[in-house]
Specification:
Two copies of one chain form a homodimer.
Chain A lengths: L2 H10 L16 H19 L16 E3 L2 E3 L2 H15 L16 H10 L12 H6 L2 E2 L19 E6 L4 E6 L5 E6 L6 E4 L5 E5 L4 E6 L6 E7 L3 E7 L9 E8 L2 E6 L5 E6 L2 E2 L6 E2 L4 E6 L5 E6 L4 E6 L7 E6 L4 E6 L5 E6 L4 E6 L4 E7 L11 E5 L3 E6 L6 E6 L12 E6 L10 E2 L6 E4 L7 H4 L1 E6 L4 E7 L8 E2 L5 E2 L4 E6 L5 E6 L9 E5 L5 E5 L7 E6 H5 L4
């Protein structure tokens, strides 16, 4: 939420900020434990463990004089105002946790009190803490020497079953569920090793695991909890280092952890706590937003949210890493490669910009204002356009822009690092989370699950890669959006489609319904050319599917 | 102080650790301010700002379970035991602050209480805080275009006047005091730019300054306070970068600050907070112990005390630095180059080892146990020995060993990274701080100012570079050791000689008497071959001279 908006919200709810009387806040041990858990699950992502803010604002008890102006402390706001904000949300992007039914009235009240207390010191995690949680479930010597399956395992889809803490492996040809394995809490992403054999998952609780896809029935072969909160994982992809190392980017403790690729044995921890690139302020909570492996160098591109730094992390000698620190923009979030895989494009969402990192030269090639609000590329979508040459596109959470940027300074210098197209999604507001394409498909697909409008939320958007226009909107058939019922008979709506993934040859596109864990939720498989619904994957085990990762496309960074 | 010794001290003073009763400690605002200052000046160096220990032990209120065993909290020890330790010191190396007269009885009592309170959160320092203190006193355009003096300015000595916060520039030929300029608090070292024109000073208060030696009367031309506590400064020495950048290594906030060489305008801050190289524990207070500029690469060698990491810091693009992190040993302290300037040798004083860093290959060449206790090389002393080839020597604070190590794996592999000589200083105990030689001189000179024995403390030791034996001890004439008198008539003794420096051609060696600021203190100039006292530099302005830095020898790393 932008500060200006935050203040207007505060004003709108009629609170005399400076006059709010100080209440004595006391929480029982049980209340504290509950609030800590809710804070970690719902709030820390945007406001930070130390509550100093990132995508969301500062929410510490004391008043804050920041670069952009003053922010009242939560003590100044007081319980009543805070309840209102937490219950109803704000136009700036704060979800209405009460209104949506995700928190009860009592929980909203609890959180309004909790944020008026000083932040709890989050735990540190040492190498020996990590090692205590490290388990090699299937030793390397007992794993297959070649694929045990006759299925096309490179066309498997790893599907995150977010709210039940599991991962499903689905055959991209037969659509059969090959295996369902346990994972960490709310797995954020899946990544593949260079060979594709190993699938890596990282949970929001910092638990990493590796699944062996060569097994007849893939299963978790090693796991370790490397941190308390994490969002990213990748592996070493450079020639000679294939499948050798894995790397986890932690939110808390803010750090980079290198692991052995096959066993997840920890090798090294490097702190990302440092100084903001622009104002030079020390930032303990400098979180790793995303990591991507370079195919052309023994290097990971590591994007650090709060400090606005991109670290090119050389893993040739993983105990003694070399880090090239590039000053970029804030707050770095996620991103993807351009078509040539020389440039990595990452969102700086607080500044509505895209940072293009030239990994060949090891420098920032450009920082491009998108014109939209809160760019959220996922990995973005690449097009080799007849006029503009290679371009890369991103959606936005805060506005209805799908924006494409020229990425070929050599052969298309006129368009390089410029917005060449701003494709407006129909209707008001943003709410897009993911776009996706495949070189063999003529379309880009876009979701819009966090748009408040029910109609806009429950359809997806098809963009023609040549005309750069929305050529079709595809509503999800009502039968797949039926509300689920809680034990006490309350109806809970499913959101619309979220996230897309193509099959190996780019002929099908899969999307999932953002349901809840009360009932199984379908995955819908569309023909990527005719846009016909070809298949609905329903299985009692498939509950809350979110991210879907085709092995071949993920190992080769095809998007 | 080693933990074992610490416990024996605790036992010796008859305190039942676990039974010490909890007292309520209360200090007034004025007492807190005074104690904070004393803590920063006297205690933080060894115990750390966060009081988690480094060279000295943990001194926080709560009990500590460390790798090496348990340490009682200061609350457990109680005021009486703490007063005893602070007043009398310990055999492990803790100075007797009361006994020596450096703290009054009341101050000792105050500190005994202070350390039972939780540590005060030390202040952060942002880029804008830094910039507020930045002053260009003489703009570059108004500085001389060539030397304005007819003196041999490359034979100047910069002399730290420690306790009066000044620096004297003394002509190495005439011994005249050319200039006395103000500096930060207790300047730790002086370093020269590659050309020798600029002399850099760093105070214990983190104030950096640059002095222009081309001026007829050298003066401070720019200053900035980059941190709250610092120990090291150096400049860019690689071809094409001569005199271009300066770098400060901070104790608090633990960081590396790059500055423009001529104006000290801050360019970049990088935090050194990270994980200990061995146990992988997060260490907020990971202090920069020393920095040295590589002559063969655009790189600084940065030694981080608590984490035991050596960072090879490439400054080609100073806003976007590249850091190669080498895992070494704890706690890194100071060190110097070998004769070839390929290897940097640095003390890991908690482990009684020397780390040899191969800066050509960017790796640790060897980690060598010295056999002595608490190696303290300063920059060490190099010898091209007829039998062992190039060797590098270091003294020790905790034992009477001057130890030499082979540094030429190519031509003298038999001796490389091995202790080839352990030269015992006569008499009991250590207390050596500095040794020094010059390629043209046949001797190494060694001081011993922190040995408790008055006789051993007040003489210096002459080692023959060929026989590797102490061939002479030279007592300081009594007339230069006369006690000074305080206002109330109390006599305060001067310690013996401390620190050596050669003149440009290596024919003279200078040492200073470690006096106090009540009276001027002499610098003694000896003939480096005959060992005759040639000249005594006395001047009303020369008070508490400690480190002496010949411009030519320092800019070329001759030792």
């Amino acid at each position: 939420m932008q500060l200006k908006k935050f203040f207007s919200v505060v004003a709108a709810i009629g609170v005399a900020v400076t006059l709010a009387q100080a209440e004595e806040i006391k929480l029982s041990k049980e209340e504290m434990a509950k609030a800590n858990k809710i804070y970690f699950d719902r709030c820390a992502g945007c406001h930070g463990m130390l509550r100093k803010g990132a995508l969301g604002p500062w929410i510490r008890p004391e008043h804050h004089k920041g670069k952009k102006g003053e922010v009242p402390g939560t003590k100044e706001l007081g319980t009543k105002a805070l309840v209102d904000i937490i219950y109803n949300g704000t136009p700036g992007g704060m979800p209405g946790w009460g209104k949506s039914g995700e928190l009860t009235k009592e929980e909203v009240e609890l959180m309004a009190k909790y944020v008026q207390l000083p932040p709890v010191a989050p735990p540190e995690k040492s190498l020996s803490d990590m090692k205590k949680s490290w388990k090699v479930l299937v030793p390397v010597s007992k794993r297959p020497k070649k694929p045990e399956t006759k299925r096309d395992w490179q066309n498997y889809f790893g599907v995150v079953l977010r709210d039940v803490g599991k991962i499903a492996i689905i055959d991209g040809v037969t659509k059969e569920v090959v295996s369902v394995v346990p994972s960490g809490f709310a797995t954020h992403i899946l990544r593949m090793s260079k060979s594709g054999r190993y699938m890596y998952a990282i949970g929001r609780d910092g638990k990493a695991e590796v699944i062996d896809l060569w097994m007849k029935k893939p299963q978790v072969v090693a796991e370790i909890r490397v941190c308390n909160d994490a969002r990213s994982i990748d592996t070493s992809k450079y020639k000679g280092y294939e499948d050798k190392y894995a790397v986890v980017g932690c939110y808390w403790p803010p750090s980079i952890v290198t692991l052995k690729g096959d066993t997840l044995e920890p090798i090294q921890i490097v702190s990302t706590a440092s100084y903001t690139y622009d104002t030079g302020e020390f930032t303990r909570e400098a979180r790793v937003a995303s990591i991507v492996a370079n195919h052309h160098k023994p290097e990971w591109v590591i994007n650090i949210k709060e400090t606005g730094q991109v670290w090119l992390y050389n893993y040739e000698d993983p105990r003694n890493p070399t880090i090239h620190m590039l000053m970029a923009e804030r707050y770095l979030h996620d991103g993807g490669w351009d078509l040539s895989k020389r440039y990595f494009l990452v969102a700086a969402n607080a500044r509505n910009k895209i940072v293009a990192v030239d990994t060949e030269k090891g420098k920032i090639a450009a920082i491009i204002p998108t014109g939209g609000v809160k760019p959220h590329p996922g990995r973005g979508a690449n097009i080799n356009h007849p006029k503009y040459g290679p371009i890369w596109c991103t959606g936005h959470i805060g506005s209805n822009d799908i924006v494409c940027i020229g990425t070929d300074p050599k052969n298309h210098p006129k368009y390089a690092w410029k917005v060449v197209a701003d494709i407006k999604l129909p209707g008001e507001g943003g709410g897009n989370l993911f776009i996706k394409t495949h070189p063999k498909c003529k379309y880009i697909f876009a979701d819009r699950p966090v748009n408040p409008n029910r109609k806009l939320q429950t359809q997806f958007y098809v963009i023609d890669k040549k005309s750069l226009k929305v050529v079709k909107t595809v509503p999800i058939p009502k039968e797949y959006l039926k509300p689920a019922k809680t034990k006490d008979g309350k109806e809970v709506k499913a959101r619309g489609p979220v996230h897309f993934e193509f099959n190996k040859d780019g002929t099908e596109v899969w999307t999932s319904i953002w349901g809840n864990k009360l009932e199984p939720t379908p995955i819908l498989v569309y023909d990527a050319n005719t846009l016909k619904l070809k298949k609905v994957i329903k299985d009692p085990r498939i509950i809350t599917p979110t991210g879907k990762f085709n092995v071949y496309n993920t190992m080769n960074d095809i998007y």
